[in-house]
Structure formats: C-alpha cells, structure tokens
C-alpha cells in the first residue's frame, strides 16, 4: 500500500508531535481534536517548532512551507478520516474512549485504512474488541518528543494483520524512525524495563545506598545511559511513573513492580517532577535544575 493521507486523532503532546513528524515526512496530514481552540494551539505550536528547524538549518524555507501546507485540522471526526490511508490515535489513555473513537472511525474510513494506536499501556486486543475488522488495529508506539526520538514500537495484537504491520513499517520508514516488533504485553519492551530501573533506583535511594545524583551519575557514566533514572522520572513526571508501575504490578504480579514507598510519598506531597518545580530535584522558574538540590528529604 502507498500511504499518502494520514489522520492523527488528538492534538496533545503526542498528537502534535506525530502530526509535525508526518508533515515533514511528506504525508498529507489531518489533525483532529474535540475543539477548534485546542487545534489552533497545536497548529501554532507545530509552526513554531518547524520555524525553529529552519533557524537551525535542518529544513529550508521551502521545505517548511511545503510541510505546513500539508497540515489540515478539523474537529469533525467523519471529515478527518474520510480519505485516510492510516489513522494514528493519540487521545487520552482511556480504554472506552479509544474503543469508541475507532468504532466511529470504522464507519467513515476507506476499507483499506489501517488503525494505529499510540497507547502506552492498553492491550491492542482490548481496543480492537470494539471493531468488526480487528486485523486493522495495531500499536504504533511513539516516544516523546516525537520529532526527536528515533524508535517506534510496533505492537502486534493477536489479530493485527500483516497488512497493518507492513503499513506501519512504511509510515515509520518515511518518518525516519527505527522499529521493533513487540507482541502485546504490559509495558511493551521499553516501559517495562524503564519502570523497573526507575523503581529500583528509588529503593536504593531509600535504603541509603547512594545519593540521587550519584545514582544518576553511575548509570550515565558506568552504563552509558544518556540520562540518569531520577533525571528521567523528573522529566516524565513522578505521577505518570507511579501510575505506570501500579498498572505493571497489577498486570504482571511481580513484586519488583510494586511502587517504591518513597515514590508514593513524593507524589502524595505534590512533588511531580520538573512540571511542578520539584520532584527528586528542585527546578527554578526557567526549568533549570538547582545545583545541589538532590537531598530527597529537603
Ligand atoms: N506523553 C507521552 O510521553 C506518551 C508517550 C507515548 C505514548 N503516549 C500515549 O499517547 C496518548 C496521548 O497522550 P498525550 O500525552 O499526547 O496526551 P495529551 O493529554 O497531551 O493529549 C490528548 C489530546 O486528546 C484530546 N482529546 C481528548 N478527548 C478526545 C476525543 N474524544 N477525541 C479526540 N481527541 C480527544 C485532548 O483534547 C488532547 O489534545 C495516550 O494514549 C498516551 O498513553 C504518551
């Protein structure tokens, strides 16, 4: 299949990043959300980021203008998907919402259209249960920030068809992304391992094995991780990590995923990471980490 028309559902953090990546890759892209005001903000943000690419010399003016011309927005779902070859869903992580939106898409899309979900935790089969053709649904799991991160996890439900798989590889390849093929399972590959490292780091911190900044330093310099586990959890949000661990613990039943009491306490205290100005580390108003702020009890 040659994919030309891509529709992205949801214009938040992930949807806007996916739409930006899609237009730069040459796809005619329609971005859908529930309100025009939300779409206006997403469109302005995409334009700003593309302009920055021009300033940095990564795109020339013509490429940027062409990319922006490929972007359409609408708050009418039927309109958004009527000529779509591939729909990428990035609406909030709620099973009923994802089921409902794909069910509605099924009524309006061309028959060949593939449905990709960017879910980070839900089973592809649970979402596909709502569809009459379950083979068209597949996981296309992007990473934040989408334009920068090189990986897509392609998540196969038990019914995901080979046509859906091949179409997803085509999208990834045109976007310049690498893929890994994963069978649906809690946390796929990346989140499952990352949550474990993050949880163990909090347990080590609580046990007084080393300071937060020394644990971060150890993983960066000793294991070549680009970021330390506490730097990362401050970036993704301690609340998001806690939710993820709770879901993995419930699904896998492995004690290693039981959220560390320290993580629970910090979230209860409103220390959510960079976004709240204080997580494991403290941040100033411009989002810069305050030096020497890694005493987690402070
Ligand atoms: N944020 C991440 O780092 C990340 C990474 C990988 C995957 N994901 C997954 O991507 C999905 C989206 O996450 P996000 O962080 O972009 O969320 P977000 O809250 O930033 O954006 C969600 C968007 O969906 C819109 N929306 C809400 N209800 C809708 C509906 N009924 N129809 C259409 N749009 C609707 C909202 O207005 C919002 O713009 C989730 O499934 C999440 O698990 C997130």
Question: Summary?
Answer:
This protein is of the alpha/beta class and 298 residues long.
Question: Explain this structure to me?
Answer:
- By secondary structure, the chain is of the alpha/beta class.
- It folds into two domains: 5-183, Rossmann fold; 190-276, Orthogonal Bundle (N-(1-d-carboxylethyl)-l-norvaline Dehydrogenase, domain 2).
- 46% of the residues lie in helices and 13% in strands.
- It has twelve helices and eight strands.
- The protein has helices at residues 13-24, 36-55, 61-69, 77-81, 95-108, 124-128, 162-174, 190-206, 212-223, 229-236, 238-252, 261-268; strands at residues 5-9, 28-32, 71-74, 86-89, 114-117, 137-141, 151-156, 178-183.
- An eight-stranded mixed beta sheet has the order 3-2-1-4-5-6-7-8.
- Helix 5 (95-108) links the parallel strand 4 (86-89) and strand 5 (114-117).
- The longest helix is centred in the first third of the chain and has 20 residues, at 36-55.
- The N and C termini lie far apart (57 Å).
- The model has no long low-confidence stretch (mean pLDDT 96).
**What integer value in Å does the Rg equal?**
20 Å
Unreliable stretches: none
The secondary-structure element order is EHEHHEHEHEHEEHEHHHHH
Mean pLDDT: 96
In total, the number of strands is: 8
């Amino acid at each position: 299949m040659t994919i030309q028309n891509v529709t992205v559902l949801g214009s938040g953090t992930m949807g806007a990043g996916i739409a930006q990546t899609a237009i730069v890759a040459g796809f005619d892209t329609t971005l859908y959300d529930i309100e025009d005001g939300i779409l206006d903000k997403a469109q302005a943000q995409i334009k700003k980021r593309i302009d920055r690419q021009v300033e940095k010399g990564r795109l020339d003016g013509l490429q940027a203008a062409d990319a922006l011309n490929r972007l359409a927005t609408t708050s009418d779902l039927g309109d958004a998907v009527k000529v779509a070859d591939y729909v990428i869903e990035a609406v909030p992580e709620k099973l009923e919402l994802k089921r409902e939106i794909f069910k509605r898409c099924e009524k309006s899309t061309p028959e060949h259209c593939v449905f990709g979900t960017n879910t980070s935790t839900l089973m592809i089969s649970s979402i596909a249960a709502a569809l009459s053709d379950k083979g068209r649904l597949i996981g296309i799991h992007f990473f934040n920030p989408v334009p920068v991160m090189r990986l897509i996890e392609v998540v196969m439900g038990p019914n995901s068809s080979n046509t859906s798989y091949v179409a997803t590889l085509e999208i990834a390849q045109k976007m310049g992304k690498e893929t890994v093929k994963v069978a649906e399972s809690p946390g796929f590959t990346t989140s499952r391992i990352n949550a474990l490292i993050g949880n163990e780091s909090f347990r080590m911190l609580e046990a007084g094995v080393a300071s937060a900044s020394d644990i971060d330093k150890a993983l960066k310099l000793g294991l070549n991780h680009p970021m330390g586990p506490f730097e990362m959890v401050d970036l993704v949000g301690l609340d998001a990590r806690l939710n993820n661990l709770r879901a993995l613990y419930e699904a896998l039943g492995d004690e290693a995923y039981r959220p560390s009491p320290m993580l629970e306490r910090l979230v209860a205290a409103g220390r959510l990471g960079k976004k709240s100005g204080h997580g494991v580390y403290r941040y100033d108003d411009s989002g810069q980490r305050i030096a020497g702020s890694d005493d987690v009890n402070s």
